[in-house]
Amino acid sequence: MKTRFVVAGLLAIIALSAKADLLGTEMGNSSAKTTATGSAGGSNSQNANTQLEKCDKPLGTLAVVEDQNAAWYAEISGQYQLGSTVPVLKLLVQQSNCFMVVDRGAAMQVIQGERNLRDSGELRQSSNFKKGQMVAADYAMSPSITFSNNDAGGIGGALAGIAGRTVGAIAGGIKTKEASTMLTLVDNRSSVQVAAAEGSSKNTDFSLFGGLFGGGLGAAGGGYSNTAQGKVIVAAFTDSYNNLVRAVKNYKPQTIEGGPGTGGSLAVQGEEEPAAEAPVKKKKSKKH
User: Fold this and answer.
1) SS3 (DSSP) at 177
2) Whole-angstrom distance, CA of residue 228 vs CA of residue 175
3) CA 276 to chain centre
4) Mapping DSSP to helix (H, G, I), strand (E, B) and coil, where does residue 66 land?
5) To which H or E segment does residue 186 belong?
6) Which of 104, 128, 192, 274 is least buried, going by the fewest C-beta atoms within 10 A?
7) What count of other Cβ atoms lies within 10 Å of the Cβ of residue 288?
8) Beta strands 139-149 and 100-101: pairing type?
């Protein structure tokens, strides 16, 4: 019985490999997509994720600012060989129509380079590159990854102890990928954080033949069922962004007595009373 199972598995792998060779490269394959899919042009979007939160009109302009010196960025670029999160987030933002995206990343070097060419007199007179054309970024959105695990499973060992080596070997190929992400939204004029949202995603990867064959054959079996950690991270950021949009749709500004940045209401040693609660001295009017 076990031999038949192994032979059947090998035949399935051969059949799938042959089918893949016959089909060749497939453009727009659904299995290769992430939760950030489709396109955007202005306020219109095509083939966007149906679960993406949307707005009737933009709430302001937005720049996505990524801290590439952070520990989480070193992890995804080193361990998972993933690139910047900015392009994915900018696609989600534009498709949602909740903010108008302005670029403050690498493209700014090209933008500034064109202005340098203008200033040097190299651009044509009709180029229409003038001062005062750039749009201010009302808000800055910053991403971070708070948790990412490429194998949060462990079910294989448990099943091996219960049902024997064969079932345990199959279950050994079951891996759970998880990610938790955070997005913060800051008002650029005041530097006040106006919103923050967490998001998460989980995927169970069934690499059924990995524990049975080992070596190259195990890798071949897993190659058809593995889901990249990057897809899980993108899904977590999509969840974060949806939560952020829900928060700003119901936004209520925080209010501080006396105004923000005037001292606060928590007194510290050496202060007679909190600055926010101190009486405001009225200026004496000059008599004429």
Assistant:
1) strand
2) 11
3) 38
4) coil
5) strand 174-187
6) 128
7) 3
8) unpaired
Query: d(Cα 269, Cα 41) in Å, to the nearest integer?
Result: 56
Do residues 176 and 150 lie in contact, with contact meaning Cβ atoms separated by under 8 Å? Answer: no
* Positions of the chain with pLDDT lower than 70, given as ranges: 1-31, 150-174, 205-227, 272-288
pTM of this prediction? 0.74
Distance between alpha carbon 253 and the CA centroid of its chain, in Å?
Answer: 25
The predicted-structure confidence for 231-282, as pLDDT tens digits, reads as follows: 999 999 999 999 999 999 999 999 998 899 988 888 788 876 666 565 555 6
Q: Tell the burial category of 139 from Cβ atoms under 10 Å away from its Cβ (0-12, 13-18, 19+).
A: buried
Among the listed residues 63, 82, 62, the one whose alpha carbon sits nearest the alpha carbon of residue 74: 82
DSSP 3-state of 243: helix
Tokens of residue 150, six digits: 């490429």
Residues 216-249 as b or e (16 or more Cβ within 10 Å = b): ebbebbbeeebbbbbbbbbbbbbbbbbbbbeebe
Structural tokens at position 204: 């169970």
- Please tell me the distance from the alpha carbon of residue 235 to that of residue 241, in angstroms, as a whole number: 10
Enter the DSSP assignment of 282: P
Query: What is the Cα gyration radius of the chain?
Result: 27
Count of positions (residues) in the chain: 288
Phi, psi of 88 (to 5 degrees): -65, -45
Cα 61 to Cα 264: distance, rounded to the nearest angstrom: 30
| Alpha-carbon dihedral angle through residues 111, 116, 122, 124, given to the nearest 10 degrees | 50
